[in-house]
TrEMBL record:
Pfam families: DinB. Residues 75-102 form a coiled coil. InterPro entries: DinB, DinB/YfiT-like. Belongs to the DinB family. The keyword Coiled coil applies. It comes from Heyndrickxia vini. Keywords: Coiled coil, Metal-binding. This is Damage-inducible protein DinB. SUPFAM superfamilies: DinB/YfiT-like putative metalloenzymes.
């Protein structure tokens, strides 16, 4: 399996693990907290939005078009239930997997221009790794919010995923 696809599969597994846990404690989803994000729901929407933006970016969509689509994305997803948010993630994941599978070379370099940050020359693999790292970081925010609310988190470390793969 391509390493980028394996990393992305880990990202999907970790998100699914979080969603399964949250469905067992639905009262935590929209509960307001004083933290980096105001709720678990806000963290999940942020993760979804960033995953969406990066897929559009690596697909070659112009920056202006991506930015213009964000208000509609928020309108469509900001009030999602846990199940609706999970479905949005699953649908986006199918697009990511199709993108990754369609690439002949995940290490091919390409350029992205951002009006504020300039031009980035990167590979598809590097940006998939960024998406995965970003997800890992914010799943930690979810765990912190859950602990603040008096609940436990769930194990979503990459090594946990590797142990599961090794048992298959």
């Amino acid at each position: 399996m391509d390493h980028s696809l394996q990393l992305y599969q880990y990202h999907l597994w970790a998100n699914k693990t979080i969603f399964n846990h949250l469905k067992d404690i639905p009262e935590t989803y929209s509960k307001e907290v004083n933290s980096v994000f105001s709720s678990v729901k806000e963290v999940l929407y942020h993760l979804y939005q960033v995953d969406y933006v990066w897929l559009r970016t690596i697909s070659g969509d112009p920056f202006e078009d991506i930015v213009a689509s964000i208000p509609q994305l928020k309108e469509e997803n900001a009030n999602n239930t846990i199940e609706e948010m999970e479905e949005a993630f699953v649908n986006l994941a199918e697009k990511y997997k199709a993108f990754i599978n369609d690439q002949e070379d995940m290490n091919r370099r390409f350029s992205i221009h951002h009006p504020k940050y300039g031009t980035l020359n990167a590979t598809y693999a590097e940006l998939i790794q960024h998406v995965v790292n970003h997800g890992t970081y914010h799943r930690g925010n979810i765990t912190a919010i859950l602990r603040q609310l008096g609940y436990t988190g769930v194990q979503t470390d990459y090594v946990s995923y590797l142990f599961i793969l090794n048992q298959s």
